[in-house]
Amino acid sequence: MSASEGTYVVGVDSSTQSTKALVVDVATGRVVASGQAKHTVTGGDRRESDPRQWWDALCAALEQCGDVVREAKAISVGGQQHGLVTLDADGDPVRPAMLWNDVRSAPQTRRLIEELGGPEAWAERTGSVPSTSFTVTKWAWLMEHEPEAAARVAAVRLPHDYLTERLTGEGTTDRGDASGTGWWASATEEYDAKTLEHIGLDAALLPRVVRPGEAAGTVRSGLPLAEGVLVAPGTGDNAAAALGLGVRPGTPVMSLGTSGVVYAVTGRRPADPTGTVAGFAAANDGWLPLACTLNCTLAVDRMAELLGLDRQAVEPGSGVTMLPYLDGERTPALPHASGLIHGLRHDTTPGQLLQAAYDGAVHSLLAALDLVLDEDADRTSPLLLIGGGARGDAWRNTVRRLSGRPVQIPQAQELVALGAAAQAAGLLTGEDPAAVARRWNTAEGPVLDAVERDDAALERIGSVLSAATPLLDRP
Could you tell me the pLDDT band of residue 473, with boundaries at 50, 70 and 90? Predict the structure, then answer.
């Protein structure tokens, strides 16, 4: 069915640092109200948050939207992926949630990969080789290091599941977010009994996987929304952003944030035994092969700070190469790496060194993108560039020069929340949420023409990386 102007939905983005809520007109995609509230996260290798903060932030963000929020007909939550939320029999957190960037489970990750058949078996069964981000590794850590806490767990949820359950009273998730746990088998689209048995997790503790287009439930009374409002399944943040862009199969997306992400929607189930590409499910019926680097805008900004330069003060030329792996690296898989500079000369300028940092970061993303795109993808179509870095000329120009592709900069902001809103709207209208987003023209924005690809720079960076890998891979 179609929706007339003045029919509203709510899209939520519960990220690592804050929760945002948008009230969106279903017919036009116009954002009529918004709100935002922050969370706190512990530092170091213990990246944890109290899930109750997320709920308080969601309620605060909805209240900031004003009276119009109570006119909304549906709501959906997009949330940070992978986090382990453990609840007791009363629905209260047993302990703080372990977030996606908590790296304490590295030993459990290595052990699980080996014990359950190696990378090839994991990729075939779940679509992905787990990294320390994946929820399965965090549960294994909890069982080993906090067995008393694990014994008290009556429900295991992902961050977006937790908020959806607070809205509806029902334990649900979706295929997109479930595919990042490590215990959801993409081959069967069911929880994997072998994996669950191996890690000592009862399937009865897990949420029901709601199918695309199906409601997760309705809003309970006593909340900043009208009682009975439909609640869509929700999904993880990357799957929500893909919905928010309305991307079609084969369209490449590069997100430039603290970490870098490349992905594309496809109709084929991905399974990469190298672990470079995570074979995630999309929030609709497709798939979302995705690769992530740890060092992107934050690493380049740090280099600009060390050099005493504005982040845009790059200069061309020079044969210097920088691998800006300041936090180790996930793609390529060099978790113990640090930054490396090669080819420094007396006449190398600070601006050229800063450009080399941009080049090193983009090289990693483009190498991953080649693996993300399947053989049917159009490799000459515009690359959708999103995230904070997409607003900077130095990032835009570096991506164009090293990719040789035209680059499109969508003007829409808050794509995760918009994707969640499109999912909520699709629940009302019966449309594919990605089609809703295309109707809203969320990907509309300027297209920057392609320039000749700098093959010499790509070959130089690749050669340095290959030669330096033994050094970078040392613990």
Answer: confident
Pairing of strands 260-263, 253-256: antiparallel
| Cβ atoms < 10 Å from Cβ of 331 | 25
Residue 376 has pLDDT above 80, yes or no: no
**Cβ atoms 168, 318 nearer than 8 A:** no
Cα separation, 154 vs 152, whole angstroms: 6
- According to DSSP, the β-strands at 8-14 and 74-79 are parallel
Q: How far is CA 308 from CA 221, 303, 351, 372, in A?
A: 55, 8, 10, 36
Burial of residue 369 (number of CB atoms within 10 Å: 0-12, 13-18, 19+): buried
Backbone angles phi, psi at 234, to 5 degrees: 75, 180
Are the CB atoms for 199 and 140 separated by under 8 Å? yes
Q: How far is CA 275 from CA 122, 250, 253, 293, in A?
A: 9, 20, 19, 12
* Cβ contacts of 300 within 8 Å, gap of 6 or more: 311, 324, 354, 357, 358, 361
| Amino acid in the structure at residue 76 | S
Exactly one of 177, 237, 432, 454 is catalytic; name it.
237
pLDDT of residue 317: 82
Give the three-class secondary structure for 345.
coil
Mean pLDDT of the chain: 94
pTM: 0.90
Token couple for 149? 């806490």
Predicted pLDDT at 336: 80
Can you read off the two tokens belonging to residue 338?
């640090």
In this prediction, residue 92 has a pLDDT band, given cuts at 50, 70 and 90, of very high
Q: What is the CA radius of gyration of the chain?
A: 22
- pLDDT at residue 3, rounded to an integer: 64
Q: What is the rounded CA–CA span in Å between residue 474 and residue 187?
A: 35
What is the C-alpha separation between 278 and 370, in angstroms, rounded?
Answer: 13
b/e burial code for range 197-233 (CB count within 10 A of at least 16 → b) = eebebeeebbbebbebbebbbbbbeebbbeeebbbbb
Kindly report which listed range (47-61, 113-127, 254-268, 350-364) carries the lowest average pLDDT score.
254-268
Catalytic residue status for 237: yes
- Are 158 and 79 contacting, i.e. CB atoms less than 8 angstroms apart? yes
Torsion angles phi and psi, residue 16, rounded to 5: -65, -40
